[in-house]
Amino acid sequence: MRNILTVVFCGCLLLLAGCKREQAAQKGMAGGMPGGMPGGMPPTPVSVAKATQESVPTELHVVGTVEASAIVQVKSLIAGQLLRVAFTEGQNVKQGELLFQIDPRPFEDALHQAEAAVERDRAQVAQYQAALARDEAQTRFAETDAARQEQLHKESLASKMQADQAVTALEVNRATARASEATINTARAALSADLAAVEKAKLDRSHCEIHAPLSGRTGNLLVHAGNLVKENDVPLVVIHQVAPIFVNFNVPEEHLNAIRRLNAGHALAVRAVPREDATRSSVGHLSVIDNIVDTATGTIHLKATFPNADGLLWPGQFVNAVLTLDTIQNAIVVPAEAVQTGQQGQYVFAVKADNTVEIRPVTTGRAFGRKVVIDKGVAPGDTVVVDGQLRLFPGAPIKAVDAGKMEGPL
C-alpha cells in the first residue's frame, strides 16, 4: 500500500511540472509571435539589385561557323628542285613575303641563252639593213642608167640591146632590194621572238622565288625542301586569310523583311562569341544576305564580316552569332535571377522601405545577357531580390549582403 501511494505521488509531481512548462512556452509565444510568426526573427540575408532604365537591343541569337575570307593554295609555276622553305608552319605571313625558293640555275642559263640570241638577231638585222642600203643605192643607179640608155636609144646613140640590158639590171636591183627587205623583216621577227624568250626566261627565273599572294596564316607544309616540284602540281602550302574573316549563320525566314529593311539603311551589327569563352567577343557587320530561302529549313543564310585584328575568331570554329536588329530605349531591366516562376506566373520579391519584402507579379520582355526586360510590375529604382528567394515570404525582414556572402549556412 505504501508503494502504491509513493508511485501516485511521483506521477502528480511530474504532471504538475509539465503543465508549468507548457504555460511558460505559451506565454513566450504570445509575447514574441505577433501575427503568428516567431518573435524576434532575425532578417534573412539576401542579395539585391535596383531596377534600371537601359537601351535594350533587339537581338537574334544563333549558332554560326567561322570561315576564312580567302583560301589560297600556293603552287609552283615552274618545275625544279625546292631549295629552301622560308617560313614556319602555322606562321602568319604578309602579302609579298618570301615562302619558297626553287633552284634558279637552269632558268638563269635559259635567260643567258635567250639574251645571246637577241644579240645575234640584232647583229643580223643590222647586217641586212646594210645590205638593203647597198641594194637601194644600186637600184637608184640602175634607174638612172636605164633612163639614160633609153634616151640614147631614142637619139640612135645606143642600141636597143643596151637599153634593154639597163632595164633588166634595174629590175634585178629592185628584186634584190625587196629580198633584202624580206630578210630584214624575218630577222626582226626572230628578234621579237627572242625578246619574248628573254621575258619568259626572266619570268621563269622570278618564279623561282614564291611569295605570299595574300596576308594570312599558313597551314601544314605539304612539300619539304629537297623535293622536285612540278609546274602547277600539288599545293606546297595553303594560306587562310583570317583578317578580315567571315561568320556564316542562318536565321528564320520570318525575320528576312526586317533584316533587309534595316540593313538597307545601315550595316547591321553582328557580335560573335566563342562558345568556349563567353567573356570575349568580336564585333562585325552583316555583309551578305543570301538570295534564296532554304525551303528545307525555312531559314535564310547570312554572312557577317569581322576585322578579327586580335585573332579571336578561327576558321571552322563554332560561335554564338548575335544579330542586332534595333534598340528599345529606356526599357526597365533587372537581373534575370530576380524573376521567379510560381503557380500564378512570374514574380519578383520587391524590397519595401521597412526592409521587408512583398511579392510582385511581373510581365517580362526579352532577355539579353544576364538581364531581362520588365514590361509591367516594376518601376525604375525599385529594389528586387536576386539571390536568397527560397527563404523569403511576404513580409519577411531582409538584410542586403554581397553576393559572395550568400554561400554560408542558412
Mean pLDDT: 86
Question: In angstroms, what is the radius of gyration?
Answer: 49 Å
End-to-end C-alpha gap? 56 Å
Query: Per DSSP, what share of the residues sits in E-state strands of 2 or more residues?
Result: 35-45%
Order of helices and strands: HEEEEEHHEEEEHEEEEEEEEEEE
Kindly report the spatial arrangement of strands forming the biggest sheet: 2-9-12-11-10-13
Structural category: alpha+beta
Major β-sheet annotation: 6 strands, antiparallel, barrel
Protein architecture, described:
The protein is an alpha+beta fold and 410 residues long. It has four domains: 91 residues, conserved putative lor/sdh protein from methanococcus maripaludis s2 fold (Beta Barrel), CATH 2.40.420.20; 95 residues, Efflux pump adaptor protein, beta barrel domain (Elongation Factor Tu (Ef-tu), domain 3, Beta Barrel), CATH 2.40.30; 55 residues, RNA polymerase II/Efflux pump adaptor protein, barrel-sandwich hybrid domain (OB fold (Dihydrolipoamide Acetyltransferase, E2P)), CATH 2.40.50; 102 residues. 34% of the residues lie in helices and 36% in strands. It has a six-stranded antiparallel β-barrel with strand order 2-9-12-11-10-13. A four-stranded antiparallel β-sheet has the order 6-5-3-8, with no helix packed on it. Strands 19-1-20 form a three-stranded mixed β-sheet, with no helix packed on it. Helix 2 runs antiparallel to helix 3.
Topology:
Elements: H1 2-32, E1 44-50, E2 52-74, E3 80-85, E4 92-93, E5 98-102, H2 105-154, H3 160-206, E6 209-211, E7 216-218, E8 228-229, E9 237-252, H4 256-265, E10 269-274, E11 282-294, E12 299-306, E13 318-335, E14 340-342, E15 345-351, E16 357-361, E17 363-368, E18 371-376, E19 383-387, E20 398-400
Parallel strand pairs: 1-20
Antiparallel strand pairs: 1-19, 2-9, 2-13, 3-5, 3-8, 4-7, 5-6, 7-9, 9-12, 10-11, 10-13, 11-12, 13-18, 14-15, 15-16, 17-18
